[in-house]
Amino acid sequence: MPQAHINLDQVRHVAKLARLAIPEERLPDFTAKLESILTYVDLLSEVDVSGIEPTSHAIPMTNVLRDDVVKPSLVTDDVLRNSPATDGPFFKVPKVIGGDEDSAG
Length: 105
What we know:
mainly alpha, two-stranded antiparallel ribbon
């Protein structure tokens, strides 16, 4: 049997990083599904792709870009009027990184 790519502790850690509340009883199911995905990726890595040009899209594509035109920016007071909280000329938002729960093990 091939060695497992991922274990319950790793799934818990990834869920914490992604801020997903996965119930403990569902972790084995998520672990099995992630293991299945990683096993399939291993299978894809066995395909010989030597001599195949790398592509970013399956069909040729051309970006249609508009010319950059300098225009006046919005008035700061008008923009901040739509914000629920401001701090001088800045939007004030809740802290989402660096809280106590991020520093725990």
